[in-house]
Amino acid sequence: MDVKAADLAAAVAGHPGAAVSHSDADVIDAQALSAYRARLADIDAELSEAESWADGPRASRLRLEREALLGEIGAATGLGGRRRRFTSAQERARVAVRKAIVSALDRIDQHDSSLARRLRDSVRTGSACRYDPDPVRPVVWILDG
């Protein structure tokens, strides 16, 4: 049976859960990105002019502005210049649950490497998590209370 990572994360005491999702929000809107790119083209033209006129201080200022603008564009876009999206609450939950499971398995490994190996082979993480044991190697769990 699959258990959603967001549900697992929300079950942790004090965790806000996945109530707020920004999955449809871009880091930068299309109009702002277009304005950045237009300003970058203007800077390139001005920089070319400043260099041809040997206007060192102006060229230096334009280079700094260009670097800052490229940094902003780079932070707001991904591969191919596409706009980045905010990480969704579900994605944050998926990553947090995966890290917690890996950490727990590492702690188990310190005491029982065979059990840790079996669990690593059987526990699946992602947007939904599950315990999926190998049917060829059946497990009988005996829990002492």
Question: Describe it for me?
Answer:
The chain is mostly helical and 145 residues long. Helices cover 58% and strands 6% of the residues. It contains five helices and three strands. It has a three-stranded antiparallel β-sheet. The two termini are 24 Å apart. The relative contact order is 0.17. Mean pLDDT is 84; it is low at 18-23.
Low-confidence stretches: 18-23
Helix and strand string, N-terminal first?
Answer: EHHHHHEE
How much strand? 5-15%
Described by strand count, sense and barrel closure, the largest sheet is: 3 strands, antiparallel
Strand order of the largest sheet: 1-3-2
Estimate the helix proportion, in percent: 55-70%
Classify the oligomer: single chain
**Count of strand segments:** 3
How far apart lie the N and C ends? 24 Å
Helical stretch count?
5
Class from helix and strand fractions? mainly alpha
Mean of residue pLDDT? 84
Shape: elongated
Radius of gyration, in angstroms, nearest whole number: 25 Å
